[in-house]
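Entry:
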Amino acid sequence: MQCILPFLIKYSYLGIFVALGLGILGLPIPGETLMAFIGFLAFKGHLSFPHAVMVAFAGTICGVSIGYLLGRSFGHPVLEKYSTRLRMNPEHLHKAEEWYSKYGKFALFIGYFIPGVRHLTAIFAGIAVMPYRVFALYTFAGGFLWTMTFVTMGYYLGEKWKLVYTYSYHYILPFAILAIVIFLLIIFLRTDSSK
């Protein structure tokens, strides 16, 4: 993170856009901390808060859109080609695609709040050939909520912006995991009751 901070200060909004786009694609850039720092820069008056949020959001949706296109263009052929090496049954792959087509919208929305998951949800949506409009609706809504949450936290924490890491892992991450557990429980109960 230390090498990114001077980049953000030097390149301002362009730096925010590029860093968040690449972070969403999977580069080891801590998105929550980055956005908290962006909020801190807005707090100090170095950035406009509304512009910072919109540019962070634009970088985020650009990153997830590229991930979606990569998954849609290359994901399925790569999985089919290497499925035997990965010990994947084509039928299981098809079932996973069906599951993701049906329930992946929730993962797209809430996945931003779980490190590691946010990098994969767009790729899996592309592999599952989820219609882009559906993908965009859920992904952009989740991305806006994620961006707004962490930039706002950095802004209101001010000089204590580094505490966002503590807050996100003590409060936001457990809430996201709880939401996923409840969602999976609902799916299980629906599936169980339909038998």
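The helical segments are 4-24, 31-43, 49-82, 90-110, 118-127, 132-157, 164-193.
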